[in-house]
Amino acid sequence: MTTNGGFQPVFCTIVPPHVLDRLARNEDPALSRPARRSLEHDAYQRTHRRLTTVIGAPAVAAPAGAVADQPHRTIYDAGHQQDLPGTKVREEGADPGADATVNRAYTGLGATFELYLKAYGRNSIDGEGLPLDATVHFGTDYDNAFWNGEQMVFGDGDNEIFLDFTIPVDVIGHELTHGVTQHTANLTYFGQPGALNESVSDVFGSLIKQYALGQSAAEADWLIGAGLLAPRVTGTALRSMKAPGTAYDDDVLGKDPQPATMDDYVRTGRDNGGVHINSGIPNHAFYLVATAIGGNAWERAGQIWYDVLTGGELKQDADFADFATLTVQAARERYGAGDELQAVQKAWEQVGVRTL
């Protein structure tokens, strides 16, 4: 199942628990009730995820007749219930239907598949043509999206704080990249390794959006979840790789807590040691690398990060310095002592992470 150590029971959601915790304490039931239900759903799914490590997840293989190096997508509708996967509503090759959420999920799975195949030669999430399944309309006003180790799941949002979670393609790419990490480096989901796990998903989620839109590093917005926040929210996205800590500053959500450098590293026991918070530091490092190199970020900058993620040397408990050192090594091995290497070295120096 993985290439690096034993399987880790990672359950990853796009909205950090500290955000839902804050909403759950709000005096307005229109805000607190969906957040509380979402936290309850997440707790159940997290427990289910742990159980799969005990009883084993079902083996999933491409169906007979599936075309090599082509996606095999299936979209299900949970009908606002919590049973997975739900009712099949669209499968590979079928025409778009009337449900825009179904169509966005289908397209987002395809965009993710295409980036990994065309840019890095990876055949789906596991590298072996894993079918891509997704369930939409999960729960009632569910304020999250997640990869559960086997499939994607999308909530519709509460339309007060969050809109439909299929709207930003980078959210889809982010969550599916947790699957890529699961099948490669298998980074532990706590502390700095967990923040790296989250950062890798943000990096490739952003690259999937940039690839789909044909944007260069200079043209990209470097936002994660742009279009997800409802109009009443003062903010642009869940996170900013360009300027961590500036994605939102809202009277309900509070202020984006992400640091951009190690000077502001957050030490906390919440959110698995701040995995969604301190991911801002390696996120910012990647942004600095990509914009310094220029051109399309999925090419040279993304290739360096992909080499580290899949190269076999990244340990499950790697910290920021371990990861940074491997990116320097990967840049040197692939591109020599040129602009790419200098960009990587300078970026980590700027965010305060030491390389060996």
Q: Which structural class matches the secondary elements? A: alpha+beta
Overall number of strands: 10
Low-confidence stretches: 1-7, 51-57
| Contiguous helical run count | 10
First CA to last CA: what distance?
31 Å
Major sheet description: 6 strands, mixed
Radius of gyration: 19 Å
Averaged pLDDT: 91
Shape: globular
Taken in chain order, the helices and strands follow as EHHEEHEEEHHEEEEHHHHH
Strand content: 5-15%
Identify the strand order in the major beta sheet: 1-5-6-4-2-3
Estimate the helix proportion, in percent: 40-55%
Entry keywords:
two-stranded antiparallel sheet; alpha+beta; 10 strands
SSE order and pairing:
Elements (H helix, E strand, L loop, with lengths): L11 E2 L3 H8 L4 H27 L17 E5 L9 E5 L8 H21 L11 E5 L8 E3 L4 E3 L14 H14 L8 H23 L9 E2 L14 E2 L8 E2 L3 E2 L15 H4 L5 H14 L6 H11 L9 H16 L3 H13 L5
Parallel strand pairs: 2-4, 4-6
Antiparallel strand pairs: 1-5, 2-3, 5-6, 7-8, 9-10
Helix pairs in contact: 1-2, 3-4, 3-5, 4-5, 5-7, 7-8, 7-10, 8-9, 9-10
